[in-house]
Amino acid sequence: MIGDTIAAISTPLGEGGIGIVRVSGPQAISIAEKIFQPYKQRDLKKDNFRLIYGYVHDPEDNEIIDEVLLGVMRAPHTYTREDVVEINCHGGILPLRKTLELVLSLGARLAEPGEFTKRAFLNGRLDMAQAEAIIDIIRATTDDALRLAVGQLKGGLSKKINAIQQELLQITALIEASIDFPEDDVDAYDVEDIYNRVESIRQEIEKMLAGAETGKIYREGLKTVIAGKPNVGKSSLLNVLLREKRAIVTDIPGTTRDIIEEVLNINGIPLRIIDTAGIRETEDVIEKIGVQKTRESIDQADLVLLVFDAETGFSNEDEEIIDLVKQKKGIKILNKIDLKHPTDLKNKLSGVLPGWPLVEISATQEAGIDDLEKVIYDLVTQGRVVPRDGTLVSNVRHKNQLKKALENLKEAQAAIKSGLALDLIAVDIRGAWQAIGEINGTAITENIVDKIFEEFCIGK
Ligand code: GDP
Fold this sequence. Notes:
With 460 residues, the protein is of the alpha/beta class. It folds into 3 domains: 6-111, Gyrase A, domain 2 (2-Layer Sandwich); 130-211 and 392-453, Up-down Bundle (Four Helix Bundle (Hemerythrin (Met), subunit A)); 219-381, 3-Layer(aba) Sandwich (Rossmann fold), CATH 3.40.50.300. The protein has 16 helices and 14 strands. Strands 3-4-5-6-2-1-7 form a 7-stranded mixed sheet, covered by helices on one side. A hairpin with a 2-residue loop joins strand 10 (261-266) and strand 11. Helix 6 packs antiparallel against helix 15 (422-440). The radius of gyration is 28 Å and the shape is flat. The two termini are 18 Å apart. Residues 249-260 have low confidence and may be disordered. The structure holds guanosine-5'-diphosphate (GDP). Guanosine-5'-diphosphate is lined by residues 228, 230-236, 279, 335-336, 338-339, 362-365.
């Protein structure tokens, strides 16, 4: 258990029906007793999982700060596994801030970002993968992204990770036993058995990695650029998509994402449209924002929706844009098919950007949009059935750790095949164990723990 008591406003600042000051730690209940006047006389020390009606008052001058509901939750069955008090104030800046200041003046310390969840982790209520899922729940933009994060919080991924880790531990133990007692226990080390066991873990990790790209898209969204020469219908397409598919508008105040993005919900896949300014505010993307800027947004994109004009046909400008995007994944969109259905253009388009599917639409008539959606979905999932539950890897940190583990396992297999000494094989297996242990947090340094929780907001 950690010694001090922390407190923070856990709800967003601004006006709301209620706002919550959360307090966690050994002093949480005694601090609450000093600032809380229950409507009816009662002893907070005897309360547990109860909401009590009353007032927050300043113990110095007895001034009432707010009318509140105070929740008392006793360790260990709480978010942090410590004593937790949640003060449900009215959702205004002053009542919340004054209540927080009172709590701090009585000995609590302002919580760091993510510190409540960090305590839940350090006190063993959640493993690291579960703790990280909490931020994904908060930031989910589609139902599937939410389902995935909740599944991870419930331990879907952790269960798989723990099983792999356990198996690696057993293999290490087996090898180490053979190193320690080479004569007594010659049978303990069966090369083929070890090799096969490593092989089946390797396959399991490969499978997890195969889904990780899609998982990442559910978690972070698919960064998408709508490109095309002027007047092909880029903003018309964006508008029809926004009207039909807008997920939520995210405006996340934070270190890296303090820009407003448009997020579309395409069959559960969050599509983040980047560079909407480029589409909306300039007539000519290439001319006005310049090739460099266009190149930058295309560089960032996971997907390019490249729009062509059925009415005006193919031109040099199309050629130039194709040159910019040809390294990317994308979809060719033939727009304005309500005006013209040119076979020569279609033939031309099937010849460029091989591997990019072609979809015909009319943005203004809202035709072909369902097809486009299906093509996007298929491109992301690559026709595979993707589990949208908590077993899918979605976090890049987890993916990188799995890759490290995979490398170690491959080295172990190579070492076994070339008949290297047992202790060298054990080093590789231990390396894999370590890499996996950084996912669930059983083998993780304080630095990494701190870095992960820095991403959280204050009060979480
Ligand atoms: P952008 O410059 O690429 O963003 O193109 P806009 O979306 O501003 O569209 C240019 C013009 O083409 C506008 O007058 C649109 O109404 C028109 N337009 C866009 N899509 C279609 C379509 O599918 N059919 C027809 N008939 N006109 C369209």
